[in-house]
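Re: beginner question about structure tokens

> Can someone show what the tokenized structure looks like for a real chain? I only ever see the sequence side.

Sure, here's an example I had lying around. Input first:
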Amino acid sequence: MSKHMASTTLDEQMLNRIAKVKVADLADGHQDLGLAPRVANSTLRPASPMLRLVGTAVTFRLYLNHGQTEYLEEVTQMYELGRSVPHAILVHKNEVPGFTSFGSGGARVAQSHGYAGCVVAGPIRDTQELPSIGFPIFGTSINPLSLRMYKLPYGTSVGVTPGRDVDVAGIKISSGDILVGDNDGLIAIDPQNFEQVLAEAEKICNMEARIFNLLRNGKSFRQILSLDPELQALGQPKFS
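And the corresponding structure tokens:
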């Protein structure tokens, strides 16, 4: 497993704080701290719109192996790692051509083993059914068709390797990274920077809340700028 594992614990207090910020706020918070945000590109989308994903990455690679593997045993071990960290997120890169690796069945198994969500670099399916499960899944494509195991090329099998860094939608995700996803997309955060980034995102949210409250009370944007020295100092405040 990655050296990141277990370096940040997502307790209830932390989860409540994360629930109040958006992925966009976390991305802006990185930039305000001089850090490069790892935001997945637009190929990665939530299977169930408006369902947030928050947790700690547990990574796997699915690949086409030349020779025999114990696929069912390896997949079972993958699911069993759902309780290895609090609020684990199953992240896997599917490198098997024609194989759709995750759908409603996988969602139910992962959820029952402690996972709080799933991120797939590859196709997912059963999106009609997934909203009723309440398990957040992000995938880079949707395909109802999947290669059956008995139709794999002769002499090959599917292998599952845990703990590897995986490339997902233009970013690298390591086991132990903190993942936050919403309807905009997904961000991966180094756990060593997470508290600092979250605090910066909260500052952005608090500033926006002040502005929106003044707007509700009838102030114009020009009046707000003249009333708030902090906004004046920013020069060009950001809005979501």
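Each token stands for a local structural state, so reading them left to right follows the chain. The chain has eight helices and eleven strands.
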